[in-house]
Design a protein that fits this description.
The chain has helices at 3-10, 25-47, 120-126, 133-154; strands at 53-57, 63-72, 75-84, 108-109, 113-114. The strands form 2 sheets. It has a 3-stranded antiparallel sheet with strand order 1-2-3, covered by helices on one side. Strands 4-5 form a two-stranded antiparallel sheet. The termini are far apart. 37% of the residues lie in helices and 18% in strands. β1 (53-57) and β2 form a beta hairpin. It is α+β, with helices and mostly antiparallel strands and 163 residues long.
């Protein structure tokens, strides 16, 4: 992990409430913590001119959707992001999905779910319940985009968008 990632990660608040979607009032508390961490992470990214995603949820906080983007060779590649919070959350991380990229890289599962098993899931498991959605974005989605978008462009699976 690079020093800049470590510094960025230190600015994301750690969560305290160990609760999932079936835990009633505890889930409401967990969602407050999730939003606080996400807002802090987004504000930090914006202040460092590194804003790269938008995210929102349904009212229950169980279905999330938004956009992620990555600049490669001065071209912006933007993708829809979606994921559900598993019932076993936070013991299990959400499976982040970029459906339009399905089949374009081997580091992806059916439905456009990005592969995070080798590097991210062990880290998540060691940090339950302290890690949340903002951590999944910072340590999962961000590095995945940085590794895979340039590869997909080089291989011709992604072409620069037309205006």
């Amino acid at each position: 992990m690079t020093d800049s990632i470590k510094e960025s990660l230190k600015k994301i608040p750690l969560l305290k409430t160990k609760a999932g979607p079936r835990d009633g009032d505890l889930w409401t508390q967990r969602m407050k913590e999730e939003y606080e961490a996400l807002i802090t992470y987004v504000e930090t990214n914006k202040s460092n001119d590194n804003h790269w995603f938008t995210l929102e949820s349904n009212k229950a906080g169980t279905r999330w959707f938004g956009k992620v983007w990555y600049y490669h060779e001065q071209v912006k590649y933007e993708f829809d992001l979606e994921f559900d919070i598993p019932v076993t959350y936070p013991q299990n991380a959400p499976e982040l999905s970029l459906p339009e990229l399905e089949g374009k890289t081997v580091k992806m599962y059916r439905g456009g779910k990005i592969c995070l098993t080798v590097h991210f899931h062990p880290l998540w498991s060691r940090n339950v319940p302290r890690f949340g959605i903002a951590h999944a974005m910072a340590l999962g989605m961000g590095p995945w985009l940085a590794a895979e978008v340039p590869h997909m462009v080089r291989e011709g699976y992604l072409v620069p968008p037309t205006k």
